Amino acid sequence: MLRTALRNVLAHKARLVMTALAVLLGVAFVAGTLVFGSTMGEAFKNQSAKNLKDVAVSVQQDYTSISDREDDEADDRKTTLDGALADRIAKVPGVASVRPMVSGNATIAKKGGGPVNGVDSWQNFAANYVPGKDGKDSRYPLKDGRGPAAADEIALDARTADEAGYRIGDTVRFATEGPTLTKKLVGTVTTEDPAVTAGGTLALFDTAAAQKLFLSPGYFDEIVVSAKLGTDQQALTAKVSDVLPKEGAKAVSGKQLADEQAEQIARDTSALTKTLLVFAGIALFVGVFIIANTFTMLIAQRSREIALIRAVGASRRQVVRSVLIEAGLLGLAASTVGFGLGLAIAAGMRPLLNASGAGLPDGPLVIGADAVLASLAVGVLVTVLAAWLPSRKAAKIAPVEALSSVDGTPAARSMVVRNVIGALLTAAGVTVMLYVTTLDGSEGLGPAMLGSALTLTGMIVLAPLLSRPLVSLAGQVTGRLFGVSGKLAKENALRNPRRTAATASALMIGLTLITALTVAGNSAQAGIDKMATEGLRADYKVAQTNNQLPDNAAPKLDKVPGVAAAAPIRTVGFTTTGGYHSMTGTDLDAFAKTIDLKFRSGSLADLGDGRIGVSRQTAEKQGWSTGDTVEFEFYDGKEKKRTFQIAGVYEGSDYAGEVLGTTEDVKPHAFNDSLDSVLVKADGGATAGLGQKLRDALGDSPLLTVQNHEQLKQESAGVINTILYLMYGLLGMAVVIAVLGVVNTLAMSVFERTREIGMLRAIGLDRTGVKQMVRLESVVISLFGAVLGIGVGIFLAWAGGSLTGSSFATYEMVLPWGRLGLFLLIALVVGVLAAIWPARRAARLNVLAAISAQ
Amino acid sequence: MSPHAAASTNATVSAVRPAAAQAVDLSKVYGSGETQVVALDAVSVEFGRGRFTAIMGPSGSGKSTLMHCMAGLDSLSSGSARIGETELSTLSDKQLTKLRRDKVGFIFQAFNLLPTLTAYENITLPMDIAGRTPDRQWLEQVVGTVGLAGRLKHRPSELSGGQQQRVAVARALASRPEIIFADEPTGNLDSRSGAEVLGFLRESVRELGQTVVMVTHDPVAASYADRVVFLADGRIVDELHEPTADRVLDRMRRFDTAVRTS
């Protein structure tokens, strides 16, 4: 049987090419993901080991023990690590040197104004420069100039200095918490810190200056200890622990730090690997349709051959085994090549991602035995499983069929059972999805996934039934436009509904996911756009990237000439029955001028101290209405519980939040005095120069953001599109495999219909007509898959989107017609492209040979 | 020897009307050098308009090749083949296709019909391909002649073998081609169905004035023709007019012995 199987694989090489490619691509995706994951994990681990090479012991603040002795006098600018402790540690036997460290964040302003990295200010690192005996800090190799040694000096990493336009000797403007500070640039350094190379910045100060900026003079965040040669790390850690104060500090060995980091890295990379494997799984799932289709067709073509084997004494089981072995051999060969391609993908990923600024460390490819085995096993298993149903069909071929001389198409098997199952699955899926629309937030996530899977599976099962009306409809068009070729194309597509459906389903899966993501993404985008500006009368939103806008910003902005109103916005969390909520506090008079809040009952004028407004969504969820008295429990401040009277209910707005009250009611409960933002209404609207005047009024700190309407909209616009394009890329593989499926089906069909094509050519259909016929069949199948996919995708996005809608007042489904149209167009093009090779083959058939073909 | 038999090796009988198709020194050679096979060796033959001609001969005699060359399905190695006034040897593939579509009707031994189309759609297929509207009256007459009126909506799988061949005959007749080529049209049929199909072919010639050329190895089938042309080893060796099955069989037997003794 093995020999038969091998002979069959070899004999049908050409016909198995597309199937092999489908398996190959799926396996390449899996192998690429696994190898890339382990390679990156190893590279990160090496990098962190390199960074910790000189760290024998790290002495850190121990927050767990500090919180125990919490008291109101605690000054968070002081730590338990001070200079005296550093000196004590330095005297511990076995310690070679100590490095007391101060760290914080500093955002650098460009020479011309504006921050170097204004978005992720937490990535703008700052530290103290610790010169060694030679006056240099080995941790930060100098590129130019010297290290900072005085209070008014600063060093930057070379890239940041370059981007900001500073040269040595220039005065650097920067901010750590709020106000703009200046220091003189004395040097630039290089760093391999991934956080910096991935888009952050690094500023270095003299130790005393850094302490003044981030802590208090004499205090440190961490003391790093390096050991003398031959000292045991574990023993040294214990000795260092002995000299630490009893509470508030801990000593961690370098090895433990490395282990912790390695564990974190492993968690991160495995999360990434798992995500990518989901997409690889989708690609392989799509491949299943192609494999199953191919084997079904091969077995149909070989039915007489199989009947003959049965007639000469092979058992059913042997026939099944022969088909499965054939599939296994195909899977193994394709997986082996696929693994090779996977290695190439893994090798190419790092340069590709780094080109877009990911800052991944270098390292050799790590090819684990598990990656090899997993890839091959997945490839072989998927192929064999996909061939299993067709192999059952092969076993059902009766020996007597070998003798029958009539080779008419076998009578269509009834699809009643299939249709009933499909209808039940689809109905179950749709029901679950409709139920999901009544849920909100995260509780609906599980049901939504289940409903989506059921609906999609149901549609796949129902696809043969749906193919008749939909393909007929498409055939009306092709028939009218392309005459007899179009009509024959339609008839051919309808001839074997299972085959057409399986081919189209492969395409449908990819398009369903792509459409659902696109619709949901665009709807969310539209919602966010609307939220950012709906009801916004203010011309500017002023905020600080570290969310610590000083309390006095509002009065300062109010004094700027041309400003009509400046409303300070701050929020504070509280709990009440039903969970965690947040309350917005503002100057209600100024707020009225900056936000157009639509009240359902009461009005903004009714609000005041002790009288709050709540959003309609919150009111509905909590069962509150105007006039009710409610009790909130705050987290901070003296007076923890407070009662309020509801004075009005308004339509949800991003700026008013869930609950709106006065500054006086909110401020006492806040952790600090800083503001979330200030909304500024200008007399003559947003005018050129006013934005800068607002910045200047607050000291023009690089942390400040002053955004007009357009900028508010743009702020979020990029993110969703970037995610969508990423998804398109990942789902692209599934679509490519589906296209291979279309090519495969067409090529097989052309082969099966050789005599028909010969006859058509004999009675006068020219080569162009034959090509047209194959091409149109391809287009009809592709469009069928696309229409199903887009339809199901829209439905899933509609039902799933309501989950977002319940907590996202401005969310409503937006159908991006342009993009959906583009998907249809792509399906059309895919149809035409997939038909190129099969159509050529059909057109090139020799008429005489074709007519007499068996 | 029958009085109708010509002594010459090539049939030179001229019909009163001009020939529907004509071959002059038509040769067809496959392969080259050692493996060269001469399928047709300078064959000259005319197929009279409105006549039913059968081509007979033992296996490998070149009868099918002659039909394929005359019908524009295969290229010639040398010589000339004409349908009406059209010389086939100079036509491109596209022109040949158009010629087959517009001037030639085909009936094959099997697999004549597209399984996806109904009988009616199969009959009108050549006209659909040409983008012509079928002549209703003529179509009804043809359908009536072959006795398919009640079965036009059926698909081939719902028809018997004989009915399928009758659909094929109707399709060949429907577009009123200059000439119909039939390749063993009764090869797959039982004798009763075969007789029916042959009867329709003969009727189409006698009553509708159609020209039919049929390749067959069945003397009974050949007896339906007005004239039988005999091929052996790629040459026309004899012909019979107004044949009967017995006379054809008799002539065939003589070929067999001639071949055996030569």
Q: What can you see in these coordinates?
A:
The complex is a heterodimer of chains A (854) and B (262). The radius of gyration of chain A is 35 Å and the shape is globular. Chain A has 26 helices and 24 strands. Chain A has 854 residues and is of the alpha+beta class. About 2% of the residues of chain A have low confidence. The longest helix of chain A has 51 residues. In chain B, helix 4 packs antiparallel against helix 5. Chain B is 36% helix and 24% strand. In chain B, the strands form two sheets. Chain B has a six-stranded mixed β-sheet, with helices on both faces. In chain B, strands 2-1-4-5 form a four-stranded antiparallel β-sheet, with helices on one face. Chain B has one domain: P-loop containing nucleotide triphosphate hydrolases (Rossmann fold, 3-Layer(aba) Sandwich), CATH 3.40.50. Classes of the chains: A alpha+beta (854), B alpha/beta (262). Chains A and B meet through helix 14, helix 22 and helix 26 of A and helix 2, strand 6 and helix 3 of B.
Salient structural properties:
heterodimer; A: 854 residues; alpha+beta; eight-stranded mixed β-sheet; 24 strands; B: 262 residues; alpha/beta; Rossmann fold; six-stranded mixed β-sheet; 8 helices; 24% strand; disordered N terminus
CATH class of chain B: Alpha Beta
**How much of the polypeptide of chain B forms β-strand, as a percent range?**
15-25%
Global shape of chain A: globular
CATH topology of chain B: Rossmann fold
The overall pLDDT average of chain A reads: 85
Quick overview of this protein structure:
Chain A has 854 residues and is α+β, with helices and mostly antiparallel strands. Chain B is of the alpha/beta class and 262 residues long.
List the topology elements.
The complex is a heterodimer of chains A (854) and B (262).
Chain A: H1 2-11, H2 13-51, E1 57-61, H3 63-68, E2 81-82, H4 83-90, E3 95-101, E4 103-105, E5 107-108, E6 124-129, E7 142-145, E8 153-157, H5 158-164, E9 171-175, E10 181-189, H6 194-197, E11 201-206, H7 207-214, E12 219-220, E13 222-227, H8 233-243, E14 249-253, H9 254-301, H10 303-311, H11 316-355, H12 369-395, H13 416-436, H14 445-495, H15 497-533, E15 540-544, H16 553-558, E16 563-576, E17 579-586, H17 588-594, E18 599-601, E19 611-615, H18 616-622, E20 629-634, E21 641-650, E22 659-662, H19 663-666, E23 677-682, H20 690-697, E24 704-707, H21 709-752, H22 754-762, H23 767-805, H24 817-834, H25 836-844, H26 847-851
Parallel strand pairs in A: 6-11, 8-10, 17-22, 19-21
Antiparallel strand pairs in A: 1-13, 1-14, 2-12, 3-13, 4-6, 5-9, 7-10, 8-11, 9-10, 15-23, 15-24, 16-17, 16-20, 16-23, 18-21, 19-22, 20-21
Helix pairs in contact in A: 1-11, 2-9, 2-11, 2-12, 2-21, 9-12, 9-15, 9-21, 11-12, 13-14, 14-15, 14-23, 15-21, 15-23, 21-23, 21-25, 23-24, 23-25
Chain B: E1 19-30, E2 37-48, E3 52-56, H1 63-70, E4 78-83, E5 86-87, H2 93-103, E6 104-107, H3 119-130, H4 136-146, H5 161-174, E7 179-183, H6 191-208, E8 212-215, H7 219-222, E9 227-232, E10 235-241, H8 245-261
Parallel strand pairs in B: 3-8, 3-9, 6-7, 7-8
Antiparallel strand pairs in B: 1-2, 1-4, 4-5, 9-10
Helix pairs in contact in B: 3-5, 4-5, 5-6
